[in-house]
Amino acid sequence: MTDQLRSLALDALTRARDRTAALTSCVDDRDLTAQHSPLMSPLVWDLAHIGNQEEQWLLRQVGKGEALRPEIDSLYDAFEHPRAARPSLPLLAPAEARIYASDVRGRVLDILERTAFEGGPLVDAGFAFGMIAQHEQQHDETMLITHQLRKGPPALSAPEPPAHDIGPLPREVLVPGGAFTMGTSTEPWALDNERPAHRRIVPAFHIDTTPVTCGEYQAFIEDGGYHERRWWAAEGWDQIRQHDIGAPLFWRREGGTWLRRRFGVTEEVPPDEPVLHVSWYEADAYARWAGRRLPTEAEWEKAARHDPHTGRARRYPWGDADPTEAHANLGQRHLRPAPAGSYPQGASPLGVRQLIGDVWEWTSSDFLPYPGFAAFPYREYSEVFFGSEHKVLRGGSFAVDPVACRGTFRNWDLPVRRQIFSGFRTARDAQQPAGTHVGGL
Fold this sequence. Notes:
Elements: H1 2-25, H2 29-33, H3 43-62, H4 94-114, H5 127-149, E1 172-175, E2 178-182, E3 198-202, E4 205-208, H6 214-222, H7 234-242, E5 251-254, E6 257-262, E7 265-268, H8 280-289, H9 297-305, E8 360-367, E9 387-394, E10 411-413, E11 422-423, E12 427-429
Parallel strand pairs: 8-11
Antiparallel strand pairs: 1-4, 2-3, 4-12, 5-6, 6-7, 8-9, 9-10
Helix pairs in contact: 1-5, 3-4, 3-5
């Protein structure tokens, strides 16, 4: 078992570092040190921050070694310096940041070889190694967002998602009411906000078979959705008026055609692809316009994990096996979502598709702790974000690595955020008639 865990941790760490290298070697030093948006850090900050977190947790905590670069800890403390202020800090230059991260990793691999994976919650089942691999992959997704915000010619490329025989699909499926197990107490690398497992009772509801598509969202735009106050939460209405928002981020209209910019390429908006780069407020407004609502976080997880035939909670919609390329669009294999209805092998027992990968899905829920929550190994990962300011997203996106995506994984962000790879699907109460779509869908 120890050798298996060691191999699993090595693979996760190596896959993350290979991706970090790809994201930071495809542009020159000027792009690495520039701030491409005040919402994001310079890429070089993320690069050194990845190394610093690895040093603090794996070298100092797990390895019990001396600090390698303690003088830079404060520079790369995400809570000490907001993103907009990071370019003014005396950051490591790109070459020095690469050497630092590489030096840390070399020492970490020595620690990995001699760690017994027992003796406390930080090392049991290789948790700290899994936590750091997830942390790096999360920053890789953040850096991919920065690449999307970056102006200039394309720096990244990837093949198109594979074609699937989608066929006709029902608009929605019924999820039976009753209790299910939410969260986990057994997933070895689950983070603190996913724990502990607990029973939830959810009334019956209907949920979309696929995420809402660009074509469906265009119907909302064409029907004047951005100009009708009645569809919007008060804060959302203020946002779209203040910032003159009339479409998802990166969209623009030329004549009768909607175009978007995607990683430096301008293209027509694909109508059958899940809509991307919408805020919680936009998702909520669309759902109201359609006579529906966003699913709660518990509803989303029940649709994704609950097997009504056995009553057990699965790790993923398709079962307990790790995701493959046949199950979901993950790991930056592609630089876009696949068409709605793709990946039939990744469907839930009830036939809901693309719950994992493609686009993060907004839920109606605030980011709150589960009953019995305990912060581990530090409060700043989850606890400081709990409250009504942040909304929960579920399911991952094409930019998420499998190590940081599972049926219990919880993401969260401010409801105004649009630069993230966010989409949504809608739901309705079981007793609500199906024909109440205000927008005429």
